[in-house]
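Attaching the record inline, Q. Sequence:
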Amino acid sequence: MVNIKELNPDAGPRAAFGARVRRAREARGWLQEELAERVGYSSTHISAVETGRKPPTLRMSRSLDKVFGFTGTADSFERRWGTIRNGSLLEGYPEYVGYESRAVELRMFQIGVIPGLLQTPAYARALEEGNVKRGTLTPEQADERVTVLMDRQAALVRPRPPTMLVVMDESCLRRPIGGAAVMAEQFQALVEFAALPNTMLQIAPYAIGELRPFNLPINLLTMSDRSMIAYAESQAQGQLDREATFVLSALSAYHQLQAESLSQAESVAMIEQLRKGSP
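Structure, as predicted:
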């Protein structure tokens, strides 16, 4: 007789996901091998997900929804997957993304890499492939991160898009990601972004030195009711803040940063030089 492992759905989101897969499968009288054939995974993989030994992926969640008829419902596996994914993100980030998709104005400052909302798919994928090479992500997790980022970008494509004010440290341009072709495409995308009627793009050059007010990335959102939200990240923690004193202080510092940074015309000229291979 096959020894069926008892599941504990209260052990966490991953365990709850796996237990629900098993319940849905058994309700239809399917063996793991039969479900595996329907969703395009091995029975070993199905077993690992059901017992919580392996996290589900976005692609698998969507396949399960299609097979079980849950696509687009409140009980979809894709929604459950989102709960698992959000549990591994920095504190405050999932809530921030919800606000970001509804903001009427976004102010962003980034160090080291192009801001996610401005990344091309190739640039984003190259970043995640670096994580795969270092062993911090699986290839499927990397694919999911790129998909989630593209969905985040798509959420800002509206009939009345938000105003986007972006300041990037010069390091964002100088750090090569994915090779020359990827960077050339990314530089072109930045130039096109700067030309939009609802955007402003500036580079904070190395030359401003100690006058740069931020040493970590920060985003400032203005909502439709004119309230403001700040979101700042370190390597290990994200902080969502609505407290007026902090937000107004960050906004004042952002204005100072803009004043010290290159104008948009000067910034685009720097990007064009780099795109053409000039130092």
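The domain at 93-275 is CATH 3.30.870 (Endonuclease; Chain A). Residues 244-260 form the longest helix (17 residues).

More tomorrow.
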